[in-house]
Each structure stands twice: as C-alpha cells, then as structure tokens.
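Form 12-C: Joint structure prediction
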Amino acid sequence: MSTVSDDVPYPDATLHLGVFFQGVNHWTIWTQPESGSQIDFTSFRRMITTAERGLFDAFFLGEGLRLREAGGRIHDLDIAGRPDAITQLAALTGLTSRIGLVATQNTTYNEPADLARRLSSLDVLSGGRAGWNVVTTDNAWTGENFRRGGFLDHADRYVRAEQFLHVARAMWDAWDDDAVATSAEAASWSRPGGVVPVRARTSQFAVDVTPVLPRSEQGHPVIFQAGDSAAGRDFAARNAEVIFSAHGGDFDDALAFATDIRSRLRAVGRPADDIRILPGTSIVLGDTESEAEEKRRWITSEQVTGATALNIASQIWGIDLTDRDPDGPLPEEAPVVAERTGAMGSRRWDDQVALVQRWRDVAAEQKLSLRETAAALEPQRGHTGTPASLADRFARFVRHGAVDGFNVSPIFTPDGLDDIVDRLVPELQERGVYPTEYRGTTLREHLGLRDPLTRRG
Amino acid sequence: MPTDRPLHLAVELDGDGAHPAAWRRARHAPDRLLTAARVERVVRNAEHAGFTLATFEDSLAPPSRGADLAGRIGAVERAAFVAPLTSVIAVAPVVSTTYTEPFHVASQLASLDFAAAGRAGWVVATSDDASVAAALGRPAVTDPDGLRREARDAVTVNRALWDSWEDDAAIRDVATGRYLDVDKLHYVDFVGETYSVKGPAIVPRPPQGQLVVLAADGLLPPDLVDVTLVDEPTVDDVGAAARRAATPRVFAEVEVVLDTADGDAVDRLSTLDAHTPWPAAQRLRHIGSAAGLVALLTDLARVVDGVRLHVAVLDEDLPELSARVVPRCCAPGS
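Section 2 - Result
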C-alpha cells in the first residue's frame, strides 16, 4: 500500500465516482439470468438508488439518435434501445436528492434555444444537479432522422459545439438573481429589465430568445466532454468542467492524459485544477486476485461472443466476415479502408491498416484465434482485483493526479453496482480517499468545481 | 361519443392558473413557482382530487410579455418529474409540432410513457408566435395550412416511430447471440413536404404502444387523434362540434372561476382582471358556484366524454373542485 510522502503530489485528493448507464454495446451482458431490463423504469430507479447510496457524484445517461447498423442492417447482437436522457433524468429527479444527473446531448441535431431550456428545466427541478455531456456528430447517416439531414462538415463540428455553448451560457445568464418578485404584492412578477433577451448571430446560429428560467442553485449545468482528438482536448480545455476520458486503465497513460489536459488548461488561462478527469471503466471484484481474474475472463468471454468477435473484425477489416469461423485464424485478406458512416456508433477505428497489423501481431505472438484476439484487444478491460487492492490502486491514481475518479460502466443491469458500493466504497473510505457523506446538494459542489466559467468575478 | 360512463375530468396545471394575474393570489411567493416542490404539490392535489388527466401548457416563448409570469419549466420535464411521484393520474405535456424535431419529440414522449408506466399523453400544439421561429433561427410558419401540415407530419412521424419496434423485438436469444429480432424493427421512411425521417425509434415501443394524442378541434386529420379538444361558447355548440369530430373521445375546454371562502367568483375575477384582463376565449367559461359548475358539467356529459378545466387560480379553485365538484361529477342525466 502506498504511503503519503513528498512523492505524492495530491495527498488529500479524494476519488469521484459516476455511473454510466446504459451502454448500447457488447460490454453490458444481457445473456444471464441476472440481466434485467435495459428499458424498464425500475431498472433505472434501482441503479440510481444504488449509486446514491454509494455517494456517487453523478448518474450519467448516453444518447442515441439512430440504431446502430452493421453491413447495412440493424445491429442485432448488442443491447439496443434507451430513453431520451433529459426526460429520463427529470423522472429520476424526484426519486433522488443528491446525485448529479448528467445527460449526453448532441450539438448538431439540437438548437440552443430548445436544448438550453430543457437542461435548465432539469437543473431547476433537481435543485442544481444537472450536467450536460456535450457531444458532436457530423455524419449524414444520423442526420436522416432529422429535419436538416446531414448538414455539418466534420471540420465544423467543434465550431458549432462552441457556438452552441456560448448561446446556452448566455441563456443561463439571462436572469438576474433577484429577477423574480418575492411577494405577490409586487408591481410585476419579474423586475423590469431583470431578464435580458439573448441575441446571437454566428456562422451556425441566428438566435433571438427571451429565456424563461432562472439559474439553479449551481449556476449552470456542469459541462462534461469526451472528445479525445487534439481538437477535442482543446475544446475541453476551453469549455469543459469534467472530461469523460478513455484513459483510465493504465496509470502512465492516465497520467500522461491528465498532464496534457492541465497544460492545455494553463494555455487558455484556466487553473490546472479546473477540470475533473473521470475516465470510463468497468470494475470487476473478487475475494482474491485469482477469483477476480477468473471472473474477468468469464465476463470477457460473455462479452466477446463468436458473433461479436466476427462483427468487430468486420468493422476493422471493412469487409463482411460474419460467415467466418470465430475460433479459426484471422482473415488473410487485407483490410478495405472504407468511409465511416457512423453506423456502428461512436467507436472509431482511425487507422484500420495499423489496427489489423496489431491484431496479426497479437494473434501470432500468443497463438490466438480470431475470437481470442478480439477478447485480448478489448478496449474496455477495466480494473480487476479485490476491493482492497483496487482501493490501493485507485488511491495511487488519484493522489498522483492521474485521474479525479471514474465513470463506472456496470456489466449487469440493474445490480451491476451493488458490489462496488457495498465492498469497494468502504475500502476507499477506510483509506480516506472517498467521502463519507455528500459535500453539498449540487453536482458542482460534489465535484468541488468553481463557479461556471461566465460567472467568475 | 359519450356513453353512460362518468365524465372524464382533466385539468390544466400550468403556472399559477389560467388567469394571467393568478400569481397575485397564489399561496406561495412568486419566486417559489419554478420549483420542484411546487410542481409536485399541485399534481398531487389534482391526483387526490380525482382528476383523470393533468396537462401542462408550454412554449419556448415566455408565458407573458407584460407584468405577469416570465418563467416556465419545460412541460415534458415537468410531466416526467411527476410521473413516478403519482400513481393514477395521467400526464400530458403540450408539445409543439411547428419547429421541433419529430424524432426527439417521439423519444421524449415514449420515455415519458415508460416513466409514467403507461399514463402519458400528448397535447399536440402549434407555434404561431413568430418569436419561437426567431429563437430557433427558422423561417416563421404562420399560415394555418402550414401549421396544420407540420402538426400532421409530426404526429404521423411520432405514431410511426412508436410502432417501429414491435412489442417483442428484444428477443434475447442466447442460442444465436441475438438481442434483437431485426425483422421486428421497422424503418419508418417518412417523406413529407418539408423533411424526412428514417427511423426506427431509438426507444423501444412505449408501454401503451401509442401515447394518447389530444388535439384542438380541426388541427389534425381525425384518424391521428384520440381526444378532440373542443373550444365552443355554448353547450349546444360543443355538442355540434362533438358530433362532427370523428375521434374516439371528445373533451370540452371549460374555463372556471368558483365561489370560494375568500370571495365569490365575480369579485375574485374582477379583482384579478383589474390587474390584467383575462380575455374571454371562444370557449365555455363558468363564473359562479360549485353547484352551478356541476350542473354545467352534467349537461356537458350528455354531449362529450370529458372536459378539460382551465381554473383561474390553482391554489384557490383546485381545492373547491376537489371538495365540491369532482365528488359530485358527473353522469349524464344525473
């Protein structure tokens, strides 16, 4: 176990946990008796109640704007179907009292006057517990479900997102704190001049709107962001308050990412601790290390079925391999580099040729079948160990500034958080690296964040 | 068409009541209106009173441009928030069709139906206010034909999306590794005059299959509507409109100002009107006793299936409805 020394740069740091529910991907196992409904309201209620019992900062919902497709057909191997995030979080508001409610919402197929109001509604109803995970889409395939169709160039996706945020923040700042009368004897419900209309003319937007909601207890919804490209990281450095990163498995990788983000923050004049970095991860616990490893192996085999392995390989090779033998060798063909439509969602293979070579190297080195190779290269390996060993590991991550916490993706619905809350959280608390009560009532308070970027003196 | 069943009672719960100056008589300070506690309390009161349905008015534009309410929590979010906090009352937000994205609206309403365990409806609306177009940076649709076209297309797309997953599309077939049976999922392939939508929905089929769709008389083709909302000034006119409406149910819109312990209805209304006049719409308005309202509703029960009440001041009129109207209401001919 690590001890506090001069080498530990953040000896008092504590871990923040969020839960990401529910992925439409092969990481959530649906084949087991304990795999409950992904859509029934009771599953969401059960999951968020467990997370709040475990003092999680945030309950985090993804967004779907089109069902994923593979080879021109709706992808049928993974869980599919989920609720609209803000609507679902509004419904969960009255069943919880502290936990943050984070909605993933797209800036391409929404308009700021509408989305900023819906986020305000959630923020006001929840007493300042709302968060917004800002995502961008540029593919025309998703656009087929919307009035404008695909209209945005890839290069403009962050331009639009940034302009969108600018308008949203202006709307959230439109009401003076004392705009509304405190007595029915007042001359008017709101003070004349207390609400300032928002007008914006940018390359993406023409907006004239009089916002209809005051700020919540936390000022603005907390801004989450997940982009990993250089443009995405710079966007986060200018705008985000939490980064939902993909760098939380390996300590050195996580630290390198965090260091990079801190330097980008300083470059735009923000304090280096102005962002919380919460990588996505899965967590598998066992009574012993070997039991945990055994459980992880079983989980991976359930996640990467033969059919799923062939589907992943088909995406990477760019050709239909679904009739191959998953327990046989890798295909001998060279990959066909194809235009990505976005039909398999946000998972990206930026360099197919390099990735295929990596598969070949791993398969040859370890003498693996196609399915075993797919399992070995799973990007979501996550953390595996005993509650005590993982508590030690997470304490090291957070006290060295590699992460501020994790966004946990449960492997099972709706009970996938139970052992994390019941067994890992107490170990973390024992080490003084996890709170024993909520710090406040708002998401911003839980995360220890400063005022919104436009609300600082 | 009306049957011998009791009249369905719906109530609109926006703001502090239907009268623009209602906030001056609310039992809370103005700055406590836009809170979860207030939203929850009013809906619970309506549920305890025995109403069938609560509706929530909405617009992107402020509720008033004058001295009255400047704020409003989104109707879908209010309905979703109260859905799991209630158990029998149905909840139906007003959602406009003029500029909104039908795909988003279908997801929001289907999600609401899941949260409400099958108690959700949709009051279909249009946005004829040019400020809504300006908020969204869109060319204004102001002609009645254009507004009806957008409403028709949006409801058509919503209904198609709600049906785009068959009820048993998630098969969870362990033997073949398939979570979905893709033959039970359907592209909607809607192509209208102003946009197209591919589908299928991202939300599985909601508990009711189709949400209950309520719309003003004449806004939509009747086959898209479950409940027509009739705005007419007399019971006879309501009856004539109800006979014309070819929808499964017809509700009459009724404005209500009741005698209360604080003052009789006429005085209450004149006090409120002195602050801000409440223009009489082309709809029934009852100003007077609870007994008089019961008599009016009993008359209406002969010609419609239900009513939607727009009460002047929620904090004053809702308790009267609860105590003296709903318990006595209203079988036809009683």
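Section 3 - Comments
Chain A has 14 helices and 15 strands. Chain A has a mean pLDDT of 93.
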